[in-house]
Design a protein that fits this description.
Layout: H1 6-13, H2 18-25, E1 30-34, E2 40-43, H3 45-51, H4 55-60, H5 63-72, H6 77-81, H7 84-88, E3 94-100, E4 106-113, E5 127-133, H8 135-157, E6 160-166, E7 171-175, H9 178-181, H10 194-198, H11 203-217, E8 224-231, E9 237-249, E10 255-264, H12 266-280, H13 290-307, E11 310-318, H14 321-347, E12 353-358, E13 361-367, H15 371-387, E14 390-392, E15 395-397, E16 401-409, H16 415-431, E17 437-439, E18 452-453
Parallel strand pairs: 16-17
Antiparallel strand pairs: 1-2, 1-5, 3-4, 4-5, 6-7, 6-10, 8-9, 9-10, 11-13, 11-16, 12-13, 14-15, 17-18
Helix pairs in contact: 1-2, 14-15
């Protein structure tokens, strides 16, 4: 609480002079000195300005009249008048109350007892009262509360978790309820430090998240942004998007405090993955569609050119598929296609690229595979199909497949040329009786002549 220097009051009481009076009137608060009998001993200009006393009232300087004038401006005049005696009996400096005026202003009343002041005989037992206009301060504080409430509502509506971390200590100093709930934890389930939460980040995402974090901490990026998975208390993974900004940095420019939000974007990520799947996956069989297969195969051919590695291609076509459709209907034919895709996926390797090219035709690109290796895989596929009939309406449906094989060394042929060669070999297998494999001509296979396996 800011008080008037007693020497100023003493100077005023002793006849003062211009300096004492100027100091008194320059006080930022309205000041009134009240004698022990309740009369007014001194007032400053700020007090007069705050309460806007008429000139004739100032001439009389009647304490009761002035109090009534003040009370009339207050929202609760009787409450103010009831405090007059308690104020006069104040035995220690304190904030007495805050009062609201009809015009929207708010005043604080600070009160302190007066010790004897030379030249002011009645000072002992009296009080000094400071009237402080806190209207702007209160409005600013209310505005801050309103903004905080709006922010909280916005965070709730956007499903955002807010957090504020002291980077030097690692302590997460403030967060809303969503901070814990977004991962299924209660307020006391984990230590309230950054490391405890960071340990929940998915191992595959941890390095990228940390790189984004360090880049902003060191001042190399204007903000922190990252998408990563964290383990939910129930055990599953939750996709989060984190965005934040440093609000304090040390002399070296390194962040010491950061505020940020985290948002659960699991649904969005699953939707994106679903759209990606629709765009790149054959809806019926679940394998790569033609476009995706060719894209991935061309990337693999580029690697083969770079490292001088062999790549083989199998083109596969289900035998007599029209007859299957005619006898079982399209639904039965679809089940045969699904059965073949599932069987083929058990034969091709994890590094191989497998897809449906169209209709009943499929393809598999075999990286790092020689002609002999491709032949082994193709023969295994033929045998597996013979042993794994499709099932439709609880009835086994045997079927066979024909395979054409082509090879390129060090990616010396384009994907289109490789597919054309394998297609020609496939149709030769069809002409040779089906349920067999044929290797493409020497134009694409410089290491071996054509051959067929009946």
């Amino acid at each position: 609480m800011e008080f008037i220097d007693p020497t100023v009051l003493q100077g005023l009481a002793n006849g003062g002079g211009a300096v004492a009076r100027a100091a008194f009137d320059a006080a930022p608060d309205g000041v009134v000195v009240v004698n022990r009998d309740g009369s007014i001993a001194l007032v400053n200009q700020r007090f007069l300005d705050l309460w806007q006393f008429p000139p004739d009232m100032l001439a009389r300087l009647d304490a009761d009249e002035m109090r009534q004038h003040m009370a009339a401006q207050l929202v609760d005049p009787q409450g103010y008048l009831r405090t007059i005696e308690p104020v006069r009996r104040t035995d220690q400096a304190r904030l007495f109350e805050a009062l609201a005026l009809h015009d929207g202003r708010r005043f604080e009343r600070h009160v302190a007892p007066l010790a004897a002041i030379a030249g002011l005989p009645q000072a002992e037992g009296g009080v000094i009262v400071w009237w402080r206009d806190v209207t702007l301060r209160d409005r600013a504080e209310q505005r801050q509360r309103d903004l905080s409430a709006l922010l909280e509502l916005a965070l709730m509506a956007a499903d955002l978790a807010y957090w504020d971390v002291d980077i030097q200590s690692g302590e997460v100093r403030s967060q809303n309820e969503r901070w814990h709930a977004i991962l299924g934890y209660g307020p006391n389930d984990l230590e309230n430090n950054f490391d405890a939460w960071d340990d929940l980040v998915h191992p595959e995402d941890a390095q990228a998240r940390m790189a984004a974090w360090q880049a902003h901490i060191e001042g190399r990026t204007p903000r922190y942004e990252a998408e990563f998975r964290m383990r939910h208390k129930a055990g599953h993974w939750v996709w989060l998007q984190a965005r934040g900004q440093a609000v304090a940095r040390d002399a070296d420019g390194r962040a010491t405090r950061l505020v940020a939000t985290r948002q659960d974007i699991t649904s969005s990520m699953l939707m994106q993955q679903g759209l990606h799947t629709l765009a790149h996956t054959d809806e019926l069989t679940g394998v790569d569609n033609r476009r995706r297969f060719v894209q991935r195969a061309e990337d693999e051919l580029e690697r083969a050119r770079r490292y001088g590695l062999p790549v083989a291609l199998l083109m596969m076509d289900l035998d007599h598929f029209k007859a299957i459709n005619d006898s079982l209907g399209h639904a039965g034919g679809d089940e045969v296609l699904r059965s073949f895709a599932n069987t083929a996926r058990t034969v091709v390797r994890q590094s191989d690229i497998f897809g449906r090219i169209g209709g009943e035709e499929f393809a598999a690109l075999l990286p790092h595979t020689t002609l002999e290796g491709a032949r082994v895989i193709a023969e295994r596929l033929l045998e597996q199909v013979r042993q794994s009939p499709a099932v439709w309406a609880s009835v086994p449906v045997p079927y066979t497949v024909s395979v054409g094989v082509s090879l390129t060394i060090a990616g010396s042929h384009t994907m289109q040329a490789l597919m054309v060669a394998a297609d020609r070999a496939l149709y030769q297998a069809k002409r040779q009786g089906r349920d067999c494999l044929v290797v493409a001509s020497t134009g694409v296979l410089p290491t071996a002549p054509p051959f067929a396996t009946p």
